[in-house]
Design goal:
This protein has 995 residues and is an alpha+beta fold. Among the domains are: 106 residues, Immunoglobulin-like; 190 residues, 2-Layer Sandwich (Heat Shock Protein 90), CATH 3.30.565. 15% of the residues lie in helices and 38% in strands. It contains eight helices and 72 strands. The longest helix has 30 residues. The radius of gyration is 50 Å and the shape is extended. The N terminus is likely disordered.
């Protein structure tokens, strides 16, 4: 018996490190998140809470949201130097110090720059220990140094107990007023008060250099000695020790290099190695728990090669390695991750979890896509039941979607092709078939009602089947009083509430309810109008909260139904959900509703007002929860399936503890300009720079996405604005002085928080300033005087207007005079008389007609010389006479076509306008029987159109090139519409407006 107990204890001891693999969830920060490079050399936190990481390239600052980089820029003396940094620390006065291999830098937040400390030039800084505002102790390769951050002076303790050597400091551990210095000459103790240094005697390490030292909560000394492959734990007097060689692989080619040693705020001892991952000392077992990278488990570290470890002021651990930073909280990890299988996770979809139950012995039974698994949380042991080619089937089918434990500790299994029952005591699997009145259907779930019946929901057949435990027989829902009305609806879930009502979830047709007390049944489906409809038609899970409200999860949202008044409330992404696909549901002891979604886990508080969401950054193995129900375990734990294993958590461990978050300003962006860092507490803007955005954040590494902000701009916002957005936008602000206020909280309700402010001044637009108002007053006085002067000189201005009228009349007379000059063209008269002379000799009768037509032309001119306008009808008659005279001379060389609308003949035109235009065409173009000049006269759109084909003369003798200009001036006087002149390669067109 003792041997068995010993073997069992040994087994637990050996498997414990494996069982602890999922204890912490490691978040990652890599070059993909903005790091300069992945080679982390040191980690530190400044006084404001920012995390700093030094790499081969430079420094990085992380605020929980984004990484800011600092690196060397050739030619820029203010950029970060090329020297490597292996240590950083905040000093006690709020500054931040960066130790280099050739000096030390101090960060100036106002300028966002680093300043080199002259007193430490060419000094390799290995450790920074702040003591107070005026004292910082530095470990260097030139010994211990006391540095004053206010005066920038440094004091070197060059000689210790033995002045014959200079002590090279590798690492310093502080315990109250004592500094313990790990050096190349051993371990030294320095008293801060007396500034005396003494060497501590360690018999085991006499003459051996020490690379690192740490002190745990029992004041044990943990030492990494040069040449040793594992840590040594010494008693407080350094006389007794323990070794841990068995945890650190060694050999010719496998020497494990311990890169850092740290005791955190709770005295726990952490070690990082270059080959064998991160280790935590287990005080109870006096052994080490090892945390190794597993590419199949997203919650494990990203690497096994680590270089540094750091504990921030909130207890979060930061581990630097060869591919970035891993960080986690060892004391606040809500979720335990249970893989569905412990082997071959990447074949047959064995990562995917579906359903779980707990048996009477505390073992977990896991339904998966590849069979059933029994998992022992104590021993971490897995056992599988699944079907494989070439061996006897262990289940109806490997696809398992429903599982439950009965009162005899037997396991009922609903598969894709039937129902199995595993008898644990007999280690025997029962295959139920149609002979047992249960068909080989596809079953979605296995549930138990208050009468002890086991229900199996199927998409096929009657939809629901149950096993009567007293009869030990299967039945269809058709035989169940009241529920028979739902037969034929494909089933997914059945649930009996605290009042005995049966709630049924259907596979595509909504949900139903039967109340045995009233013998009434009800059914709901999704509604496009949102009235009296549930969120979706395919139901996944159903549960009841402490107030009797029924909650139904569907593929397309969450529904709450009050069975008393049948009021319905639906939830979707518009009123709080992060994803409409809702699956597993569970209500905890505080009446909070937990739900798995397609984008993470959510919790709806007991007031049903606020949602809290959890994602990968909170320790989930996957954000996607498949279409299966949750499991409530005996101790109140909740277990839910994900696409990468199960998550188990205790709701009691989740409390809305309010942590003080201090906001800070991140950026200021003017509309249309690039975002700028906000490094001061006052902003001065021009009057037209009143469109801007203010960025802010708060350090909350555990739940950055869950941080709430409240902000207001005094004088603009009447009340605080609450949001999770990290930017505030303002537009069209009037000039003046404003104060912008912002607070941050990890709880939407709790706002007893530190407030940050920034003063903003916007110049007032000129017409609202005092000087402009004075100028306006003076302008009004001047205007009054001008009005007075206006009245005095009113008569004078009237006379000026009369003079202008006379000038206009004169211009009219001049234009008409130019027109008459065109009308009485002597060249026309000369040509006409010449033609008449020839006719007298040859044809006296035609000469008489010619003379008569000439008389008509000049009679028309004389008749209308004083008239401004004549009718188009008169003008056309006149121009026809003119054309007849010209045809006597040019015969068929001149062709005039007149096509004027009858409706236009009453309209007016200036006298002899047409004659001038026809004459103008004849004057400038060749007229020949072989190439006749064709003139067309038409009307349209209120214009008279006169066009001719172009066959220009080389030279026009009688043209003064002023005729058309005069015509345009005349019509400018007569009409608002202009004369239009167009010319192209074949045609010349003039359009005269009809009046």
């Amino acid at each position: 018996m003792k041997l068995l107990l010993t073997l069992f204890a040994l087994f637990v001891l050996l498997t414990a490190p494996i069982a602890q693999q999922s204890r912490f969830f490691f978040r990652k920060l890599t070059v993909a998140d903005g790091l300069n490079d992945g080679g982390i050399m040191a980690v530190a936190q400044d006084s404001k809470g920012f995390m700093w990481f030094s790499t081969r390239v430079g420094l990085n600052r992380f605020d929980g949201f984004a990484v800011k980089s600092y690196s060397h820029i050739a030619g820029d003396s203010t950029s970060f130097p090329t020297s490597l940094s292996r240590v950083m620390s905040a000093d006690s006065s709020g500054g931040f110090l960066v130790g280099l291999e050739d000096g030390m830098l101090e960060y100036n937040e106002a300028s966002d720059r680093f300043t080199a400390i002259k007193a430490l030039e060419n000094v390799w800084v290995t450790q920074i220990i702040p003591v107070n505002k005026t004292t910082v102790f530095l470990g260097t390769h030139k010994g211990l140094v006391k540095y004053n951050p206010l005066t920038k002076k440094a004091v070197f303790y060059r000689n210790y107990a033995d002045s014959s050597y200079k002590l090279r400091t590798n690492n310093i551990e502080r315990l109250n007023s004592l500094l313990f210095i790990a050096s190349n000459k051993g371990l030294f103790e320095f008293d801060i008060k007396t500034e005396r240094i003494t060497k501590r005697s360690i018999p085991l390490l006499e003459g051996v250099g020490i690379s690192s030292v740490a002190i745990d909560k029992q004041h044990h000394f943990w030492i990494i000695a040069n040449g040793k492959n594992s840590p040594l734990k010494f008693s407080p007097d350094l006389q007794r020790y323990e070794t841990y060689d068995q945890y650190f692989e060694s050999g010719k080619n496998t020497l494990v290099n311990i890169t850092s040693l740290l005791t955190d705020h709770k005295g726990r001892v952490w070690l990082t190695t270059q080959l064998d991952g991160l280790l935590l000392y287990n005080e109870q077992k006096n052994s080490f728990d090892r945390f190794l990278h597993d590419p199949l488990k997203v919650w494990t570290p990203s690497t096994n090669l680590h270089t540094s470890v750091y504990a921030d002021r909130d207890g979060t651990m930061w581990v630097g390695g060869n591919n970035g930073v891993n960080y986690f909280d060892p004391d606040r990890n809500l979720f335990q991750i249970i893989p569905a299988f412990n082997t071959e996770q990447d074949i047959r979809n064995r990562r995917v979890a579906r359903i779980a139950t707990e048996d009477l012995n505390g073992k977990l039974w896991l339904g998966t896509i590849d069979g059933v698994v029994r998992y022992d949380p104590v021993t971490n042991e897995y056992k599988e039941w699944n079907n494989r080619e070439g061996r006897t089937d262990m289940l109806h089918y490997n696809s398992v979607r429903g599982i439950l434990c009965d009162d005899e500790n037997n396991i009922w299994i609903a598969t894709g092709r039937g129902i199995n029952q595993y008898l644990q005591k007999e280690n025997r699997m029962i295959f139920y078939t149609s002979k047992d009145s249960i068909p080989a259907f596809f079953f979605f779930s296995a549930d138990k009602d208050r009468a002890g019946n086991f229900w199996f929901s199927s998409r096929d057949g009657d939809g629901f089947y149950y096993y009567n435990t007293s009869e030990k027989k299967f039945h269809s829902i058709k035989s169940f009083p009241g529920l028979h009305v739902f037969a034929g609806n494909g089933g997914r879930k059945i649930f009996q509430d605290s009042k005995g009502r049966y709630w049924l979830g259907f596979n595509g047709t909504g949900a139903g309810m039967y109340d045995p007390a009233t013998k009434k049944s009800y059914k709901w489906q999704a509604s496009t109008t949102g009235k009296n409809g549930i969120a979706g038609s395919s139901v996944v899970d159903i549960t009841e909260d402490k107030k009797g409200i029924i909650w139904i999860s569907t593929f397309t949202g969450l529904t709450a139904i009050d069975p008393v008044n049948f009021s319905i409330r639906n939830y979707n992404h518009k009123n709080g959900l992060i994803n409409n696909s809702i699956s597993a549901l569970a209500v905890d002891a505080w009446n909070r509703l937990w739900m798995g979604t397609g984008s993470g886990l959510m919790m709806l508080d007991s007031s049903r007002t606020y949602f809290t969401s959890f994602g990968l950054q909170h320790g989930l193995p996957s954000v996607e929860f498949p279409e299966h129900a949750a499991s409530l375990l005996a101790g109140g734990d909740i277990m839910m399936p994900t696409q990468n294993g199960f998550v188990r958590f205790s709701p009691k461990n989740f409390t809305k503890e309010h942590n003080q978050l201090v906001p800070y300003f991140t950026s200021f962006t003017l509309s249309g300009k690039e975002e700028q860092p906000l490094l001061q507490n006052k902003i001065d803007l021009k009057y037209d720079e009143n469109f801007f955005s203010i960025g802010f954040a708060a350090i909350n590494y555990q739940n950055a996405s869950g941080t709430w902000y409240a902000y207001k701009l005094d004088g603009v916002d009447d009340d605080w604005k609450y949001t999770q957005n990290r930017f505030a936008d303002y537009t069209k602000l009037p000039g003046g002085n404003y104060t912008f206020r912002v607070k941050a909280s990890d709880d939407r309700i709790e706002w007893n928080c530190t407030e940050q402010t920034i003063a903003i001044h916007i110049d007032t637009v000129f017409y609202k300033t005092w000087w402009f108002r004075l100028l306006l007053f003076l302008t009004l006085l001047a205007t009054g005087y001008a009005v007075y002067r206006y009245r005095i000189h009113q008569q004078e201005k009237l006379l000026q207007l009369q003079g202008k009228a006379q000038l206009l009349e004169k211009e009219k007379v001049m234009v008409m005079y130019e027109s008459l000059k065109q009308q009485l063209n002597p060249h026309f008269l000369f040509n006409s008389l010449t033609s008449l002379s020839g006719l007298i000799e040859t044809d006296q009768k035609m000469a008489g007609n010619f003379l008569e037509q000439m008389s008509k032309i000049y009679r028309y001119i004389l008749k209308n010389r004083d008239a401004e306008l004549v009718s188009l009808r008169e003008e056309l008659a006149f121009v026809q006479t003119y054309i007849n005279l010209q045809k006597t001379r040019f015969k068929e060389g001149l062709q005039v076509k007149i096509n004027v609308d009858e409706d236009e003949l009453h309209k007016k035109i200036a006298p002899v306008t047409l004659q001038n235009l026809v004459e103008n065409a004849m004057k400038h173009n060749v007229i020949d029987l072989d190439t006749p000049l064709i003139i067309t006269i038409t009307t349209s759109d209120g214009y008279l159109h006169v066009s001719n084909n172009l066959q220009k003369k080389n030279m026009v003798e009688t043209s003064n090139k002023q005729g058309l200009a005069s015509l345009q001036s005349l019509y400018h006087y007569l009409c608002r519409r202009p004369v239009q002149i167009e010319e192209n390669s074949t045609e010349f067109v003039i359009r005269i407006p009809l009046i």
